[in-house]
Here is the input.
Amino acid sequence: MLFTLLLFMLCATQAHAEEFNAGIVQGLWYSQEAIFAGKTIRVYVAIRNNTGSDLSGTVEFFDNGKQIGRKNVQALNGRIIESWADWKPEYGKHELSATLSRIELHTVGAETQEVEVISALSEDTLFVDFDTDQDGIGNEEDSDDDGDDISDAQEAADGTNPLVNDAEGQENEEREAETTAQQEEDANTQEQSNVPRGLERYLTDSPAENMLSGVSTYIHDLKEDLDAYRSHQSTRAQDDKKASTTQMRADGFGEIARSSSTNAGASPNNQFNFSDFLKSLGGLALALWSKVYSFLLAVLSWLLGHPVLIQVGLLALILLSLIKLAHKFGARPKSKRM
Here is the structure.
């Protein structure tokens, strides 16, 4: 009786210890070969199923015992599937693992069965380093951590920080200095623009000073608009000149237009052409007017650059007008003789 009981317990233990031909394929792999601290990568694992039935379960990923991902998986009979988790490692040593749990077999025409598999665990150990200069070489192996072409040993001897790019630091300082200089220049320009430019500089705060200041501001704005117009006209004239002296050939290459052996203004048989003469004369007049027009604009711009002259002229004109009005309406009427 005792022997029969022991035989039954042994058979029951062997049946419970039976493991199915399925589980995690040995090894973990990663989305990139070089793994550095602070950069997110993906951890992969593969699960096979050779049980003769469909299989489902849960894959969990751990980093130093802390879960970093969890996914439910399903694998048909005879298939290998993959699962993954995103991981952003920190500096130092890491014990990575992936486990397969809650495994169930789904057989057609039978109830779902919870089972154990041959391999339910995969592990890997690695060291994650920093890559300060992002050259693909960890600082532990890199002789120049910050990538400034100065070795770590030399920086240690010089007393500088091997993790700070000295060249970039110098560039940043130069950039900051340029920015500061530009800001100071803009401030000076703004300050100069606020300085009185006309007769108001000789007056104290008064309605007359405010009026003259407004006139100076208007003259200054008018000068800026005129200078912008002159610059636009000059650019346009240069473009027109280029267009008139350059022709495009049929093959798309530029060709300078040159006069033929025939004299300009004459027909091929050397006869006088009045129409061409008028065109030449009109072009000459237009060119002369363009020069005169540009000169007048330059003179006007110069005058606008001196608000005092314009204000003095305006005051003189007002004074002259008042004198004429006084002479016209203030003269005594002549008495008629009896």
Notes: Residues 1-17, 253-266 have pLDDT under 50 and may be disordered.
